Automatic annotation (TrEMBL):
SUPFAM superfamilies: NAD(P)-binding Rossmann-fold domains. GO terms for cellular component: cytoplasm. GO terms for molecular function: oxidoreductase activity, acting on the CH-NH2 group of donors, NAD or NADP as acceptor. This is 2,3-diaminopropionate biosynthesis protein SbnB. It comes from the Bacteria. It holds the Pfam family OCD_Mu_crystall. Coiled coil: none annotated. PANTHER family: KETIMINE REDUCTASE MU-CRYSTALLIN (PTHR13812). InterPro entries: NAD(P)-bd_dom_sf, ODC_Mu_crystall, ODC_N, SbnB.
Length: 332
């Protein structure tokens, strides 16, 4: 068994944003072509009121193609951690051999989860704004995920020059501006306090919050806005029904009281979903923008992306001699 710590994962992935985006794109194509196996995620919740916002999710997955991989991501989300200065999410990915089925690697998964999420968002931003790439982005939610999204956006959208930052805690937005300047010095990052005005001023918006229920609409957005709805529960059902919607997988994203699940319940169908991202990338579907309707990308966060990226990390770590090997983890 190979144990890969956070430092090992970070060492492998640092500076490889373009490669990660390409890996995510390839995995989406395989998924759309039916070359993955992806059971529904398992949500472990708790009966106590003080744990009402907490959950642990299990995401088993298999990616086929030329570089097959199988495993499971186990990720916790405890939003209260943020208030005490620790990360909201922590995770591990277990990879299995496809020869004998044995577990072969345990990989720290929070970095993998954050970077595959950011790569998915950046990939969609480039695909959905290809005709007119934006020069600025509004980041709503000043945490780990939006910092990674900004990093990956600069790789996918070389013309990006500004990032407006909004958070319900203004002090967090101020501190986040400093982190953005350190991480992506080529982008001018600055806090904003008027959210409706900011929504109208930027054609690209990234939502990465800890919201558990819808709290905003898109009524003040401009006519050519693309929204990366990464946290999945920010937008009202009416906002979703009024948008042109792209998803990673409709069966996965229309569950667990996401905004799209609520929209599905309100409409009685999923006709409001225009296309999956994999079909757009493969060219088996096209997206037509409609005047006055924003395009909203809502990725559930498919476990197959975590498994694919974890396998990439494992292969590179083996080559570089990283990690801790436990030879007697399983019987010989």
């Amino acid at each position: 068994m190979l144990i890969l710590r956070r430092t090992d994962v970070t060492d492998v992935l640092s500076g490889r944003e373009t490669e990660i985006i390409d890996l995510v794109a390839d995995t989406y194509r395989l998924h759309d072509a039916g070359q993955t196996s992806l059971p529904h995620s398992v949500f472990l919740r708790f009966p106590e009121e003080h744990h009402s916002r907490d959950r642990i999710i299990g995401l088993p997955a298999y990616r086929g193609g030329e570089r097959p991989a199988a495993g499971m991501k186990w990720i916790s989300s405890f939003p209260g951690n943020v208030a005490v200065g620790t990360d909201r999410a922590s995770a591990a990915v277990l990879l299995n051999s496809l020869e004998g089925g044995r577990p072969v690697a345990l990989v720290e998964g929070a970095v993998i989860s954050a970077r595959r999420t950011a790569a998915s968002a950046a990939l969609a931003a480039a695909e959905l704004t290809a005709e007119r790439p934006p020069a600025s982005v509004l980041l709503i939610g000043c945490g780990v995920i939006n910092l990674e999204i900004l990093r990956f956006l600069t790789a996918a959208l070389p013309g990006l020059r500004e990032a407006a930052l909004y958070d319900t805690d203004p002090a967090r937005a101020e501190a986040f501006a400093t982190r953005c300047a350190e991480t992506v010095p080529g982008v001018k990052a600055y806090p904003v306090s008027d959210l409706p005005a900011a929504l109208g001023a930027h054609r690209l918006v990234s939502l990465a919050t800890t919201a558990g229920t819808p709290h905003m609409d898109l009524s003040t957005c401009g006519p050519d806005t693309t929204v990366l709805h990464v946290s999945l529960r920010d937008l009202t059902a009416e906002a979703i029904l009024g948008a042109v919607n792209v998803v990673d997988d409709a069966d996965h994203v229309c569950r667990e009281r996401t905004s799209l699940d609520l929209a599905q319940r309100a409409a009685g169908n999923r006709d409001f979903i225009a296309a999956p991202i994999g079909a757009l990338l493969r060219g088996t579907a096209t997206l037509r923008r409609e005047p006055g309707r924003p395009v909203v990308y809502s990725p559930f966060g498919l476990g197959v992306l975590d498994v694919a990226l974890a396998e990439f990390v494992r292969e590179e770590a083996e080559r570089l001699g990283l990690g801790v090997r436990v030879d007697d983890f399983l019987p010989g």
